[in-house]
Specification:
7 strands
Amino acid sequence: MAVLLTGAERDRYVDALAEWNVGGNPAPVEWAGRAEEDRVLYLPQLTPKQIKKALYIYARDGGDIKRVDETREEYRHWQHHYDLWPRLRRRVYYFETRFDCQDPDEPTIYIMRFKPHG
């Protein structure tokens, strides 16, 4: 089931995205899963940092973020994933992310994959 993020939960997610340009191990916004393969396939002209920044601007400006209960067996160790639909280079893309906020002082968003939407 998908639930639109609101209130404090949305604020925590957007606050983590606001750190898109900060490094670390892991970084607050981390490129993971198939994200690099998808970037090369769909948006080779953009860098990971440009895409991370675009996700932050989308979320900061009120774009929908949905928390989706994870039902796929290979990802059951995550309770949810988080979906976003920003417009990049005149096209809407679907992004699947994971949000690890077990440490409230150092949450991490993992950008897992993306593709053109619609």
